[in-house]
Amino acid sequence: MAYTKEDFKKLVEDIQSQDWYKNPIGFGIARVDRGQLNPEKILQATYPLINWEENYGSAAVLLNALKKAGNNVDTSGSELVCSVSDAFLAECIESFRPYIPEAKGDAHKNVQVISALSSLPIDSGYTADDYKVVFIFEDTDAKSVESAYLKLYALSTGKAALRSLNLNGIFGQLHNVAWVGNQPIELDWLRENEITLKLSGQYPSITKVDKFPQFLDHVIPADNTRVLDTNKVRFGAQLAGGTTVMPGAAYINFNAGTEGSVMVEGRISSSAKVGAGSDVGGGASILGVLSGTDGVPVTIGENTLLGANSCTGTAIGDSCILDAGVTILPGTKIALSEKAVAAIKEINPDKEISTSMKGADFLGVNGVHFRVNSTTGQTIAMRSTREVKLNADLH
Amino acid sequence: MAYTKEDFKKLVEDIQSQDWYKNPIGFGIARVDRGQLNPEKILQATYPLINWEENYGSAAVLLNALKKAGNNVDTSGSELVCSVSDAFLAECIESFRPYIPEAKGDAHKNVQVISALSSLPIDSGYTADDYKVVFIFEDTDAKSVESAYLKLYALSTGKAALRSLNLNGIFGQLHNVAWVGNQPIELDWLRENEITLKLSGQYPSITKVDKFPQFLDHVIPADNTRVLDTNKVRFGAQLAGGTTVMPGAAYINFNAGTEGSVMVEGRISSSAKVGAGSDVGGGASILGVLSGTDGVPVTIGENTLLGANSCTGTAIGDSCILDAGVTILPGTKIALSEKAVAAIKEINPDKEISTSMKGADFLGVNGVHFRVNSTTGQTIAMRSTREVKLNADLH
Amino acid sequence: MAYTKEDFKKLVEDIQSQDWYKNPIGFGIARVDRGQLNPEKILQATYPLINWEENYGSAAVLLNALKKAGNNVDTSGSELVCSVSDAFLAECIESFRPYIPEAKGDAHKNVQVISALSSLPIDSGYTADDYKVVFIFEDTDAKSVESAYLKLYALSTGKAALRSLNLNGIFGQLHNVAWVGNQPIELDWLRENEITLKLSGQYPSITKVDKFPQFLDHVIPADNTRVLDTNKVRFGAQLAGGTTVMPGAAYINFNAGTEGSVMVEGRISSSAKVGAGSDVGGGASILGVLSGTDGVPVTIGENTLLGANSCTGTAIGDSCILDAGVTILPGTKIALSEKAVAAIKEINPDKEISTSMKGADFLGVNGVHFRVNSTTGQTIAMRSTREVKLNADLH
């Protein structure tokens, strides 16, 4: 008797109705890189596909297959990491059967992953234990390298919003390793083999030493996105389509990034984000919560220009300009002429604008041009010449 | 009967006198990298040699050989791109015959290219169609990837002056691709193969995603030139011998660069150029025409020091100093003492110098030291201590 | 008759008592990379182990073995470079015999090097002449690539203190070459083979052109040290354990670095050093003796914060803060209120503090917060909020 899509639907409903079952927040299957000296040490987890608040049918199939394959499937914890087994794959293939013929291109990606796993050549160098089925049920501290990577993937693929995830525990879970491109190497292995490797001319070309890989090691950007130097974007950063990251003084840390087409020639520190159409000038610094801000993550609005070597430690609105070299911290005293107050008030009718403000007072204020008067050295604000889209609700 | 150099000369004259013939501005033979999914998409063109306003004899031989090999040789368009064929190569070899024995080292490079092409091993992985003979007859918008690369080569080899070429259309012609070092990969190919590549541990180490390759992917710098990080110089930039590009915050974009021995630790934006003996300090920013200037490309003179984290949006003369952290934009108001006016006037007798100037007023003014008075915050200019070579014609 | 550790000790004493013998400052055995065109040109020297003011027993054995193997062992010069030979290795093995069984892990590293050299496979691609035994007897100008590398290793492994070595002659000895990761290539070889390499698709992916390799090409950092981009740390730099070097605008040149756990997001120029617990903010510049300082190498104290895009050209004490964007050069005039003078004096009782100081006057002054008053543009100093450890000897 043929097993149909209708049967698949019933299977999923049946699984989801069982007591032990719980929908995960995110899940996926990863290939792990293990320590050269200590194979118990997971150095990296590579996901061909991740699911985040989606594809619960596939989640049900995978959890059910793990259970049938004899794994202890405990959905009461915050996460679950199981090794792939032949029994698990066979069960998945059986359940996914009606979708296998059409699992191509963008369709049924989870089915594609199972098919690809099932048909890996025997001499791939990896064993079933190098593939992990990973579920996150609660967004608490990461308890494994695999779940830490799953969260970073959720951010870097744009499936989870910046600042929306609990990233505690990630630094603790990841190991500091040497990288040769996207291949991690234990530092201790290098130490043990340094003499032989160096004398025989086999010492590897280390490209970095860090806990994190790069964004481009794991994520394929949109066609109109450019990253001119892979070292400039850490894994866990988010780049909206149309973003360009230049190789001069740019850097985007994890849990930071862009929400639209942005030119990035400066630094976007962890927790900071920049709106569509904005320009982070050469060497401009957007500070992170750990240094120079008042603890509030910095948001830069849309269509705003941060000039070369400017520095921002507090929120800046839409259509603003910071002149090259200007620093605005939360406590920076900024003077406005009566004319400037009126002009800025006109486009920000619901905001308090006065002749003497601090950097932090400009939260949500649009169309401001921050300058240093080169005659007096005074930091001033005036109406920006950049077009401001007025909020229709306010008028 | 022996074919001699005299015969070659007559051949060239004969070709050049024909109606259809026209001397090209530039020409060369490129190997092209094609899309992995779409082989019609040219991802990169690599020229072992380019000719720019030179070697018209070789141009005549190549155009004639294309014609004899049956190509439609239309010299009335702005450019011509033809595939190499055995007939073309045979015809070239025949014409170049007297030069082949002495085509070694720096002699007869075009003949060397033809010889090398003729003797490529059959299993090189490339076909005749992967080699293109390319001519530019008019400096209009690039109409192909091959001609776009030829122009970028002309700039990066120093055969064409910075700002001298029409670069419109280059962004449109080049495809945004992933790079593994100097190998371009279609993003769509990565997407189609992501699951298999990642599961099998074959996902490539992407080094960047951009339309342009790097300068060092195509050009061998002078013996006294240093580029400490290939990501810091885009293809299409120009580096005069003796230039050093440091890996901190430096970047040199295409159609920008140096005209002599320059220490570069900061950014030289597209269209900007820096004279011999100058020093672009750590994090210093020279703005491009698209951001912060008044639309005039910025030229920095000779023997000038741009201090760390300074920012320049307007022309600066010879033997000037910008103090670290100082920003000079076209509209920046700058104060000069009477003494400073006199001292600067002394070495710039033909310039208007006054006690109140703007940044843009210093065009062509030499020997100026720009500072911010740390007591008053005022931006000031005084006589620089750097030696100024006076223009003998003026005295 | 068994040769024992006691015999080894006697052998060493005997060698050391001979007239010709002299303890070296540093020594090691290097594998050298030779020029592709000119094999006499040494492009790089890779040491699996270096000794610096230590392990004089091994030094004696190596010098003695060279002598017995027929080398001209002249210890009266500043350095000695000899090729390895089978006779030399046999003599070393004989002398080191009692230590060979226990030469594992961290024990008897020099013995391990000799053992590894003796058991290199015959087809390693290297000959005995590619291995050099190198000694430095006097810290004068480097006279060979091998001794230049030995000094840079001494700095980068932390065995010699920053600024403690004579580095003259190093630039002169090292050749400017193209690098493909850690493999050096003569520029002339690239030029000679450019046509064939490019046409056949074999042109290498050059990663930089410089005289120096990178720190990570030769040194394995501590487990808690991170270098997020290998290009950011030149060989000859020193990184104390716990240092993190970010990939934005950071750079650490040779003979510069950190003396404890430091976050580095800015530039540490040659000759500059930074104390434990300090933070070099994004784009911050610490100037080197060649640009912007008064010729005194800049030392940054412990627990000090240099804000983003700040610039320092003079010594800064412990527990200081430079606000983002602030520049302090030796001659910068800095104003202090009476209250600030008193508060700073309190924790620096032995220093001259007044209401008008210059940057250079703050040498050894702790707990200072440098700012620019955003209302007046004046550069001011006040008491920093960072905790200052008072010197117990002074109280």
UniProtKB/TrEMBL annotation, chains A, B, C:
Domain 2,3,4,5-tetrahydropyridine-2,6-dicarboxylate N-succinyltransferase middle: 174-213
KW Membrane (keyword) present: no
Keyword annotations from UniProtKB, A to Z: Acyltransferase, Amino-acid biosynthesis, Cytoplasm, Diaminopimelate biosynthesis, Lysine biosynthesis, Transferase
HAMAP family in the record: DapD_type2 (MF_02122)
Protein name: Tetrahydrodipicolinate N-succinyltransferase N-terminal domain-containing protein
Species this chain originates from: Arcobacter roscoffensis
